[in-house]
């Protein structure tokens, strides 16, 4: 069985992934611009119909809230490296032309976050848990899958958050940016504190493995991360939010298991040396 058919079989009922090699964002890292809310709130009331430009602006506001709580970790080389890996994995998704941005925030908690429109944040604590580039690609692939499937937009549409956001339409023109960020703050915090549906997380795991494998990485990168998390101390305070907002790692491994057998025999690199080159300073840094 060739690689493409193997990956499609693994993905199962999820959307078929088409490899598109397109130009990626020229920027490095997450560079947030002023969020122009003109016309954004017009479509927020029905998030099923949000167009891509509006999705990106919504994601900018959500990313700004996340980074307001924990700024980016001060290591330009690490940020550039994570962007290079993330952008390449993102090219294997159904949405390679989004303005993808990746960043490592300065938090010792073990977690990763996605925001609509292609904004991905991995915590410093999560990077410390990883052992090679394949594992990093697996984690990023999982978050890319959330954006690919618009999981957060769907969660907003199913909640009362859309109504809260639409109130920003009443703001005066010179206050629109301030009000949009303010209106996004509460729903963003609530959404990430509550987490997505378990089915969304399982789907992101399956698709994340596919994206990372199509990018040329060992398909067992993400399962290896889940195995590490499954053996961690459940009382570890740095894992509290991850375990609260996601299915337990063993449940995620069990859900992945039927498909992983179809990937046996795929020989792909882990790139441990390159990963350690960019993360060595972080791993030896004092928390």
Kindly summarize this structure in a few lines.
The protein is mostly helical and 287 residues long. Helix content is 55%, strand content 5%.
Tell me what you see in this structure.
This protein is mainly alpha-helical and 287 residues long. The chain has helices at 3-11, 40-44, 52-69, 76-90, 124-129, 133-148, 151-157, 161-166, 176-194, 198-214, 221-230, 240-245, 249-260, 272-284; strands at residues 101-105, 112-115, 119-123. Strands 1-3-2 form a 3-stranded mixed sheet. Strand 2 (112-115) and strand 3 form a beta hairpin. The longest helix is centred in the middle third of the chain and has 19 residues, at 176-194. The radius of gyration is 18 Å and the shape is globular. It starts with a helix and ends with a helix. Residues 1-28, 32-48 and 165-174 have low confidence and may be disordered.
| Beta strand % | under 5%
Shape: globular
Number of strands: 3
Average pLDDT rating: 81
Major sheet: 3 strands, mixed
Note poorly predicted spans.
1-28, 32-48, 165-174
* Structural Rg: 18 Å
Strand order of the largest sheet: 1-3-2
Total of helices: 14
Q: Percent helix among the residues?
A: 55-70%
Structural class: mainly alpha
> What is the distance, rounded to the nearest whole angstrom, between the alpha carbons of the first and last residues?
47 Å
Order of helices and strands: HHHHEEEHHHHHHHHHH
């Amino acid at each position: 069985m060739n690689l493409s058919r193997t990956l499609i079989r693994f993905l199962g009922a999820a959307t078929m992934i088409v490899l598109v090699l397109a130009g990626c964002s020229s920027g490095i890292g997450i560079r947030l611009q002023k969020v122009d809310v003109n016309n954004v709130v017009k479509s927020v009331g029905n998030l099923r119909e949000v167009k891509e430009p509006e999705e990106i602006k919504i994601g900018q506001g959500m990313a700004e809230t996340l980074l307001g709580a924990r700024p980016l970790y001060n290591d330009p080389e690490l940020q550039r490296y994570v962007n290079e890996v993330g952008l390449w994995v993102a090219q294997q998704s159904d949405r390679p032309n989004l303005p993808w941005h990746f960043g490592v925030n300065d938090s010792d908690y073990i977690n990763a976050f996605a925001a609509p429109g292609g904004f991905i944040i991995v915590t410093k604590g999560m990077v410390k848990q990883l052992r090679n580039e394949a594992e990093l690609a697996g984690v990023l692939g999982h978050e890319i899958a959330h954006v690919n499937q618009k999981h957060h937009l769907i969660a907003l549409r199913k909640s009362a958050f859309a109504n809260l956001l639409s109130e920003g339409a009443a703001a005066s023109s010179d206050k629109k940016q301030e009000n949009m960020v303010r209106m996004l703050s509460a729903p963003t915090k609530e959404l990430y504190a509550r987490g997505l549906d378990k089915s969304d997380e399982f789907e992101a795991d399956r698709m994340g493995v596919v994206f990372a494998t199509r990018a040329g990485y060992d398909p067992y990168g993400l399962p290896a991360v889940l195995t590490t998390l499954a053996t961690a101390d459940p009382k570890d305070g740095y894992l509290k939010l991850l375990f609260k907002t996601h299915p337990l790692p063993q449940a995620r491994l069990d859900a992945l298991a039927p498909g992983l057998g179809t990937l046996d025999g795929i020989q792909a690199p882990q790139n441990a040396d390159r990963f350690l080159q960019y993360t060595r300073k972080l791993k030896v840094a004092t928390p």
